[in-house]
Design goal:
200 residues, alpha+beta, 5 helices, 54% helix, elongated, mitochondrion inner membrane, transit peptide, membrane, mitochondrion, Cytochrome c oxidase assembly factor 8 isoform X1
Length: 200
């Protein structure tokens, strides 16, 4: 599995940085592989079904290729062996936010594509045209006609978008707050370690 250049992510807790690796899409067989098969191949079991599998020995977060439904890049978060309860809360909050984003945009994009096709079909039918022209190419509408669809779609989904934005801000506030707590806990832990070494 090939990896493209690394993207540095500033970790909560000072100057320590964690690498986030960007992956290319893997074969379709890896999408259906279960946790047991992933473990046999030396990959993380939590990657099953995501379309990419970082190696089990990696100590980094891994960013995968865009999901074909949501267009979002899935992230598999690294779980350190000595993860504190507070660090676990932060990781789980990030995972929950990612899952919610994935569900919302997958449904949103599916509805958008379906309603767009129905709109184009209805407009072409009203003109007495088929979905494909004489050359077999897919017929389209001009920009002004499509503007009617975009305006109607946004208006119809306005409440959904507002609710999503509210939830998004709430989740990000929680994540930011937890990041601050984790940063403080790590700083205090480092100071205690430094003081202990000086006393020796």
């Amino acid at each position: 599995m090939a990896a493209v250049p690394l993207l540095l992510l500033l970790r909560a807790g000072g100057s320590c940085r964690r690498h986030r690796r960007l992956l290319t899409a893997s074969s379709s067989s890896s999408c259906s592989a279960g946790g047991g098969r992933a473990a046999e191949r030396g990959e993380r079991p939590d990657s099953a079904g995501l379309g990419f599998s970082p190696p089990a020995h990696s100590h980094n977060d891994w960013i995968g290729p865009p999901d074909k439904h949501s267009n979002l890049r899935p992230v598999i978060f690294y779980v350190p062996p000595e993860e504190s309860p507070l660090e676990r809360r932060l990781r789980e909050a990030r995972q929950e936010a990612q899952a919610c984003n994935q569900r919302f945009w997958a449904r949103h994009n599916c509805a958008f594509r379906q309603e767009k096709e129905e709109f184009i079909y209805s407009r072409l039918k009203a003109k007495g045209l088929e979905m494909r022209d004489e050359k077999g190419q897919k017929a389209t509408l001009n920009a002004e006609e499509m503007a009617d669809f975009y305006k109607d779609f946004l208006s119809k989904n306005f409440r959904k978008h507002m609710q999503y934005n509210r939830d998004w801000y709430k989740r990000n506030f929680t994540i930011t707050f937890l990041m601050g707590q984790v940063a403080l806990a790590r700083a205090l832990r480092w100071l205690r370690w430094k003081k202990k070494n000086v006393e020796r």
